[in-house]
Amino acid sequence: MTEMLTLDAFEEASAKVQEVTQKTGLIESPHFSAQTGNKVFFKPENMQRTGAYKVRGAYYKISTLTDEERERGLITASAGNHAQGVAFAASRYGAKATIVMPTTTPLIKVERTQHYGGTAVLHGDVYDEACEYAMQLAEENGYTFIHPFNDPAVATGQGTIAMEIVKELPLVDYILVPIGGGGLATGVSTLAKLLNPHIKVIGIEPANAACMKASLEAGHVVKLPSANTIADGTAVLEPGDKIFPYIQQNLDDIITVEDDELISAFLDMVENHKMIVENSGLLTVAALKHLPFTGKKVVSILSGGNMDVITMSSVIQHGLIQRDRVFTVSTLLPDRPGELVRVAQTIASMNGNVIRLDHNQFVNTNRNEGVELRVTIEAYGTDHKNQIVAALEAAGFRPKLIQAHL
């Protein structure tokens, strides 16, 4: 077998993964290019088979196993995307796959894993707890364990993304890559440096699960006490020790982003690119606003698109509220006919759109003191919201902004 993380190994892996991957050509983004002053491209692995890049590492790793190792059955732990990659790749080799997933894994990822032929076992609140249980099952049953990131062969498979980026955009300056445990960042940064040492690779982590940043600062692998982020695919407590040296050598920088920024990035991708990207894949989109340079060719890797519709609806709701495109005001009205109509007419005169009304006559025991009206309104953004509120004030309604709910 070829030694991992060498140029020969990456070339071998690139040829191998083409048996199962779909072409995910770069997509130029005029919107983000204009916003950042860089020439921004997306590598849309959210459009990849199984909905994420993970099929690359899983398929290549399984291809390097012996028949006996595959026949024993495969097992892995995953927050979802690696699960689907292993289940799909295992089915191609006729091997059985057991996948241990955290109990918080979105339903769509569990269902897709089963759809590809994997047996899903839910255990633990975070990836690390699921991984411990998977290793226990592997020992008890003799399964072959396929680690989602702490494996040079898996990282080599993931790194094939860099081969495709450089072939399509030879003069790329920066590649942005999401980091959970570090497998993708290891493969991409190592191969990028082998192909062209001038290419800079920046890892992007959620601020509340930045285990790689903490490890790099400490100079050794560090385990976080918690990983609380909506980017479930990168909610990892501890990076891989086998791949950490490659990260130390080849990763140029790390940027952390807050969960609120991922919500904003989701809306940007839906409205400007008509693309569904899961929260972990949005890390590199949110990071575009943090880049301390302009005039560069930048590729953001969109690592996956497996987001369930419940999460999607929640993110959209919070995003609209965050951008003041939906807001709620409360006001006390005299309890007499026509007041509700006056409020509606005032909002309509400012081109506001009423989404919800809650007219509560019983907020005061003495109704002559006023009844409460709560109105949820759709606006174009902060300026428009302020204009609507000002118009209500001018009409004498004394509106009070409160927490909006769709």
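(ticket continues) Second input and output from the same batch:
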Amino acid sequence: MIERTGWDRGLSVTADGKGLVGHAGAVLLRRLADGIGLTRGLAGVLPFSRVSGWRERAGVLVQLAVAIVLGARSVLEAEQLQRHHQGLFGTPASDSTMRRLLTALDGTALARITKVRRRVRRHVWMLLNLRPGGFPWIEVAGRTLRGWVVVDLDATVITTASRKEGAAGTFKGTFGFHPLGGWCANTGESLAMELRPGNAGANTVDDHLRVLAARLEQIPHSSQSKLLIRVDGAGASHGLLQHLEALNTTRRTVRYTVGWKITQEDEAAIAQLPASAWETSLTQQGELQGGYQVAELTGLNARGGWPEGMRLIVRRVRPSRRHLKKLTDFEKKTGWRYSITATNIRHMWGIAGSHQIQFLDALHRDHAEVEDRIRTGKAMGLRNLPSHSWQINTGWMLAANLAVDLDAWLRLLTLHDDEDLAHAEPDTMRFRLYHLPARLARHARRRFLRIERTWPWASAFTTSWKRLTRLPAVT
């Protein structure tokens, strides 16, 4: 016998509701895509037909990106999620239609979409400059990098349990893919990403140069006067650093910080450092960080062939238990664990104390935030590539990057003054805004999307919508 608790007394469950909308946050994302010109821009480069039954490919791609933001992990789940919004957006595109769209995204189509993304990003950055507080600048060690656009380059591993096209063993001992991506640290946008086989090298120069060129192309020219490029240890190659130096012109200043793989020559140079050369490092708030020390290694390393003027900053810390097995003989002897950063920063215009080694060390350590960008990307469609086909997976990766941008732009343009949501993780956004249920009502030839008035973030939802409706039209 089932014990009654009272709450279900007189309760009946039926399937006869009307005008219900699940995952109502989709209206914010779609309104944003339309308002900033993304949907219209894609319509100009994707196939179009007036044949009866034809689905506009631009709308299909935008709705796929919206579904990925909501949590879709495959084209089938994307179709099912869109059924929640039939009263708003019409009959959802079938999974077969979405597969045909992704299959048709060849090199030519992707190049055209890249140009659309660049135009849209230029418009969004213009809006960011006009919002209260202006463009989001990075803060490092208590200093604001005003005027500097910071871009991070990093690779990640996407595992797979089946033999998909291009999947291979990775350097981590897993099986899957090894894509390389670039993100804007100021905004959290996914600027560029290249799908690579699982056995692709971590420090392949050509791949780094190709993705670097793609992400720099996404940055509006008006914002390229001062760029900071950050790469982990996989980027410490002659070809990449020489290319970064060559990017400097009379109108553009390019600075970089790159992780450095320590060799025996480096350890010999470290051994020459006097005790007085070591200084206490700084936290990201600009306070002293006890137990961590940095020193200038430039001039003591005799290795040639590297860009002239490059500096080496060495950092040391007492090793933790999990690092004991990875220590070199030199590190075991000294009792310290070392890491080195290579940089061409002698001075960053407008940043006081930017020449100091403590600041440069903190500046490169801030690159670790790229792991947050990678985690966000995997939470939005990149945890698993859904198809056996390399072509479809490439298109899916593009849709996932669009999803990351839409989520970032929504927070930057409409929730920037909301402390709880301005930097919220994908799951938080889904719980508080995107997955909010609503009822679609009609009155006097108008439609009203009604959400629960007692929901703690109801005001944030309605404020976001009002700000989206006031966005300046795209010229």
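Agent notes: The chain has a mean pLDDT of 91. The radius of gyration is 25 Å. Closing as not reproducible unless the customer responds.
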